[in-house]
Specification:
321 residues, alpha/beta, eleven-stranded mixed sheet, four-stranded parallel sheet, 11 helices, 15 strands, 18% strand, binds threonylcarbamoyladenylate, binds magnesium ion
């Protein structure tokens, strides 16, 4: 089993030598390797059982350090980076030859991000190369928001887990791309609300294809999925009535209901706070997935701000039923 700790020097040494380290970010834990080393990056795909057509995000501690890897930074991208980095925002930019094709899955763009977690920022400051890091979960499963989540699923496959506690945002970064026409596109809803992207970049086009060959596999319809069937519900009492005799678990926004016992109920935010709900989402989903329920009923959240990204995750989890 991998060691867990807060030793940045140790993490840096492993990464320099081409090993795998799980790193905390404000969104979810990442499974990191030296992005410029194909041999190291291959280990990420193997550990996650991830298909090679699914490209990775590269992480650094500043936009300046990412310059050698991108050809051109559109004005809107600059403004977004200035406003929201470090933070839960990933930009798709034209890549240079320095980025291995394995990282970008042969696309001519590369996804780049400056994450906000202090431990990981310190680690990145010490490295003279960026880190490729997808979420540290087996492909298709719920992303990890605590070090223990990583250990449980990938503990024998990583060399070290840098423990940064519980992720503050709790859902993955928002992915934004830029068309030659100047149009800004959101490819994955995430921890930065579309409303906040639009404050800086003007009206955006939200492009969440659900095809089988998506531009961003976070767009795959069945993704972020627990093992148990999950029903996304706009009327919990009616959903309960529709499954008489089934042992149900409830993922509720603010209130528990009679009929589903407390040990199989998780409330995302008793005060109806969407940021708190996002922070609790994946841990709650894992706990209910580990319960003895036969069916998880998830309450659809209000659709603005982070509610939209949370509902998107729940819809994809439900598509696995
Ligand atoms: O919050 C996050 O973004 C976390 C933390 C660790 O940074 N990372 C993360 O990585 O969620 P991952 O690999 O699980 O999701 C990255 C998504 C994938 O769906 C991938 O297809 C998309 O980014 N992506 C990466 N490069 C792309 C590109 N050039 N064009 C389109 N989509 C891309
Ligand atoms: Mg992922």
């Amino acid at each position: 089993m991998a060691e867990i700790g807060t030793d940045i020097q140790k993490a840096a040494a492993i990464l320099k030598a081409g090993g795998l380290v799980a790193i905390p970010t404000e969104t979810v834990y990442g499974l990191a390797a030296k992005a410029l080393d194909t041999g190291a990056v291959i280990k990420i795909f193997e550990a996650k059982n991830r298909p090679f057509f699914d490209p990775l995000i590269i992480h650094s501690n500043s936009l300046e350090k990412l310059h050698p890897y991108v050809l051109h930074i559109p004005e809107a991208a600059y403004k977004l980076a200035e406003a929201y980095w470090p933070g839960p925002l990933t930009l798709l930019l034209r890549k240079t030859v320095l980025v291995p094709d394995l990282v970008s899955s042969g696309l001519d763009t590369v996804a780049v991000r400056v994450p906000r977690h202090p431990l990981t920022l310190h680690l990145l400051e010490q490295l003279d190369f960026p880190l490729a890091a997808p979420s540290a979960n087996p492909f298709g499963y719920v992303s990890p928001t605590q070090a223990s989540h990583v250990i449980r699923q990938l503990g024998t496959k990583v060399n070290y887990v840098l423990d940064g506690g519980t992720c503050e945002v709790g859902i993955e970064s928002t992915i934004v791309g830029f068309e030659d026409s100047g149009q800004v596109k959101v490819y994955r809803l995430g921890g930065l609300a579309v409303e906040d992207v639009e404050k800086i970049a003007g009206p955006v086009n939200v492009n969440l294809n659900q095809s089988s060959n998506p531009k961003a596999p976070g767009q795959l319809k069945s993704h972020y999925a627990p093992r148990k069937p999950l029903l996304l519900s706009t009327n919990i009492m009616e959903s309960i009535r529709n499954f008489p005799g089934k042992k149900m678990a409830l993922l509720a926004f603010s209130y528990a209901v009679k009929g589903i016992p407390a040990e199989r109920t998780r409330i995302l935010s008793a005060t109806g706070d969407l940021q708190e709900a996002a922070r609790n989402l994946f841990a709650a989903l894992r706990e209910l997935d580990d319960s003895d329920a036969e069916l998880i009923i998830a309450e659809q959240l209000p659709s603005g701000f982070l509610g939209r990204a949370i509902n998107d995750r729940l819809q994809r989890a439900a598509a696995a039923v």
